[in-house]
Amino acid sequence: ERYFQALADGDATAATAMTFDPDSDLFDSTYLIDDVLGAATERISDVKVTALNDPLVGPKHKVEVSYTLAGERHQSSLHLKEVEPTWVFLRNWKIHEAFATTLAVDRDSLTQLTLGGEVIEGDATYIQLFPAVYPVALTEPDLFTADSTELVMNGVDDHDFVTINPTAELQTIVQSQVN
Q1: 120, 136 in Cβ contact below 8 A?
Q2: What is the enclosing helix (H) or strand (E) of 126?
Q3: What digits encode the pLDDT tens for the residues 49-75?
Q4: Contact 69, 44 (CB under 8 A)
Q5: Of 146 and 105, more confident
Q6: Which of 35, 121, 154, 175 gets the highest tally of CB atoms within 10 A of its CB?
Q7: ∠ CA(99), CA(75), CA(69), 5° rounding?
Q8: Contact, 97 vs 26, CB < 8 A?
Q9: Of all helices (H) and strands (E), which one includes residue 85?
Q10: Under 8 Å CB-to-CB from 120, ≥6 apart: which residues?
């Protein structure tokens, strides 16, 4: 529950610290940071965590989590892994993988996208984001427009995307170059 409270509070650092292997090749933590999650216009709320198996049996544990985001209720499950106990006998658990979803970034665009004020840079084709509603902007708003000013990453089945189109100004510039 502390993990999801950290996400609800915008504390990506605390959430990542509760992940079994934050340096794993399974996910890219570049954008799983306080600046990005903290800039979200909405984060998960009304979180409920339910154990799906007995945590006293075995080194692995599965939980179901439900939460509200963008006015909708979402549900998912997570795997936990046992780590070093406290005082020899108190069992401790960490999230096996970050509760983040993948956003596909179209690198063919001539402008860059910013999420929560952070520019999506480099050769990123897919980026990981914690579930939240992120403000979207473009680095060259005079030449390109986005069809949305926010991106909802619900943590379960992300179908939201942002379409980038040229402005009339850019079309005029290109047409003058062609003529």
Answers
A1: no
A2: strand 126-129
A3: 888 766 566 656 778 899 999 999 998
A4: yes
A5: 146
A6: 154
A7: 80
A8: yes
A9: strand 72-86
A10: 31, 105, 112, 113, 114, 127
What does the alpha-carbon distance between residue 37 and residue 39 come to, in Å, rounded to a whole number? 5
Alpha helices in 18-105 (DSSP H): 34-38
Distance, CA of 73 to CA of 3 (rounded, Å) = 18
Tokens of 129: 């984001």
Q: Are 146 and 109 in contact (CB under 8 A)?
A: no
Closest of 160, 168, 139, 134 to residue 149, by C-alpha: 134
Element (H, E) at 95: strand 90-95
C-alpha dihedral, 80 to 82 to 86 to 88, nearest 10°: 160
CA 48 → CA 38, 41, 63, 75, 137, distances in Å?
A: 21, 21, 10, 9, 32
* pTM confidence score: 0.79
Joined tokens for residue 82: 């046992």
Amino acid in the structure at residue 86: T
| Residue entry with tokens 């680095």 | 139
pLDDT above 90 (res 139):
no
**Whole-number Å distance between alpha carbons of 33 and 176:** 43
Token output for 118: 């952070």
